[in-house]
Specification:
It contains eight helices and five strands. By secondary structure, it is an alpha/beta fold. A five-stranded parallel sheet has the order 2-3-1-4-5, with helices on both faces.
């Protein structure tokens, strides 16, 4: 394993592999607000553990339409996001049905959404690993600004322009996981 493996916290690593005692497929769910590091961890897991297939709304949009603000106008993003949601859900259900290990790179901001995914995972006989990225609003804003200062990601991650007003709405509407078996990563 290389540098990407160093990004993955030990507590997460210890839950990624199937064992003789627990051979169930693994579904890793990220949970956090924009800028918290979800895609960085997701890509590291997919790179270090080839059995995992990463599913990301941003990646789906980029693979079909290019980069936000470069290959398509910002006004098209909402429609592309709806299309990507359908592809995301279909891909997730198909991989789950096939018994594959899955890396869900998404905010999973609402408890109801996390519960719905957990129900599907359990129904399929798989095991969920929930990774919550805990970050203060000012830390998120700093990280978003740093990301904006860099060139757009070639895979579309973090493509959506996030201003302070949108970030504040994300923070206000976020259901913090509590008692969901979450692994907490403190974002600095």
């Amino acid at each position: 394993m290389g540098a990407t493996d160093q990004i993955i916290p030990e507590e997460v690593k210890s839950r990624l592999l199937r064992t003789e005692q627990d051979p169930r497929p693994v579904v890793v769910m990220t949970c956090g607000i924009a800028g918290s590091g979800k895609s960085t961890l997701s890509k590291a897991i997919a790179a270090s553990y080839p059995s995992f297939t990463r599913i990301s709304i941003d990646q789906i949009i980029a693979s079909r339409h290019g980069l936000y603000g470069v290959d398509y106008p910002p006004s098209a993003h909402a429609a592309f996001e709806l299309e990507a949601d359908e592809i995301y859900d279909t891909t997730f259900r198909q991989l789950l049905k096939e018994g594959k290990d899955i890396m869900l790179d998404r905010s999973h901001y609402a408890r109801a959404d996390r519960d719905a995914v957990l129900a599907e995972v359990e129904k399929a006989g798989a095991r969920r690993v929930l990774v919550y990225f805990k970050a203060e609003r000012d830390v998120l804003w700093k990280r978003i600004c740093e990301r904006k200062a860099k060139e757009a990601s070639a895979d579309g991650d973090g493509a959506l322009e996030i201003g302070e007003e949108l970030l504040d709405r994300y923070v206000a509407g976020f259901d913090v996981p509590d008692g969901e078996g979450e692994i907490v990563i403190e974002v600095k």
